[in-house]
Structure formats: C-alpha cells, structure tokens
Amino acid sequence: MFDHGKMKFRFIISDSLKEKMQKFSKIHIYSTRQSVKEKWVIWIKENRELIVKEKQNLEKYGYSGSNDDFINKLFFSVKYYYMKKHQKPDDQYDSTISKDDDENTQIKIIKCVDNHIQCILHYIQRPSECYLDFININKENIYSEFLRIISEYDKSIKIRLVFEKIKKCYENRYYIYRRRACARSA
C-alpha cells in the first residue's frame, strides 16, 4: 500500500491516456461547451477500461479521490490545459519573454529558489504554500529580478508575465528537488 511519508502533490498520468486526451481536445477544440460535455460522456464510456486502470495505478501512489472526482480532473485537464493551450492566438503571447530567456533568469534568483527548497523540503507542505513562503522571504531578490527583466526587455512588459516566469521557475525547481528526494529515499 501507499507510504504516507512519501506524499505526492502532482500525479502524472500515463502516456497512453494523455495521448487519448490530447486527441479528444484537438478534435473538439472549436466545439461548443455543451457539445464538448456530451462528447466527453461518450469518450469516458469508450475509454472506461483505460481510465479505471489509470486510477488504480495512481492510487498506488496515494491518490484518494472518487471516480467522479478523477473523471472531473481529467475533463479539467482536457478543457483547460489541452484545449486552451491550442486556442490562444499569437497576440496573447508576449514575444519579449521567450522560452530561451529562461536561460537568462538571473543566477541569484535561481540560487534563492534552490536554497529555499532545500530548507523546506524536509517539511510536508503543498507547493503553493512553499511558493508563498518563498515570496515572503525573498521580496528583495524578487523585486531586483523584476527590475532586471523590465530593464533588459521592454518597459511595457506585463507585470503578470514577469511574476508568472518567477513562479514557473520555482515550481519547476520544486518539482525536480521533490523527485530527487523521493528517489533517494526509495
């Protein structure tokens, strides 16, 4: 059974289910909301065996939601991750911050993230709580990173995008450290 000492906050679904969800989202990306819901019910029936198998697999790692909760989470993933990801027009993306710019994220902020994660990793906390703690402790470093990004790019850059970039950096680093810690203890 599941060892509660190795608590997971993110559950990764299998590639086979993920591919079927992506395929569903591509087919119904421009369908109406009602149509998507109707087709989803049919999709669930067609893929019931795979979904049950996936839920059982995740329960081995501590997932404890009901069947309806699991199916709702899958629907949420399809609707808000896969479909929305492909629906955004190019003008919604800010071209001043690209994925390549992640390499330019100041080393100081990455070291702050790493130090914070190493300190809190021994406590069982939700990643969102850890991030809020990080913000409270490192306000000055975050502000200097914010100023660096604005000065390096364009002053009209959206503030939200800067903070999303810092948050994404934190979440990725947290997930990597958490995975390493689980691998070492296994």
Task: Annotate the secondary structure layout.
Layout: H1 15-27, H2 33-46, H3 48-59, H4 67-87, H5 107-120, H6 127-137, H7 139-152, H8 159-185
Helix pairs in contact: 1-4, 5-8, 7-8
Structure report:
- By secondary structure, this protein is an all-alpha fold.
- The chain has 8 helices and no strands.
- Mean pLDDT is 76; it is low at 88-104.
- The chain has 2 domains: 15-87, no CATH class; 99-185.
- Helix 5 (107-120) packs across helix 8 (159-185) and helix 7 (139-152) crosses helix 8 (159-185).
- The protein has helices spanning 15-27, 33-46, 48-59, 67-87, 107-120, 127-137, 139-152, 159-185.
Classification by helices and strands: mainly alpha
Number of helices: 8
Report how far the terminal alpha carbons are from each other: 14 Å
Shape: flat
Question: What percent of the residues sit in helical stretches (DSSP H or I)?
Answer: 55-70%
Q: How many DSSP E strands?
A: 0
Radius of gyration (Å): 20 Å
Proportion in β-strands? under 5%
Q: Mean pLDDT score, rounded? A: 76
The description of the largest β-sheet is: none
Q: What is the ordering of alpha helices and beta strands?
A: HHHHHHHH
Low-confidence region ranges: 88-104
Q: What is the count of distinct domains?
A: 2
Features:
186 residues, mainly alpha, 2 domains, 8 helices, 68% helix, flat
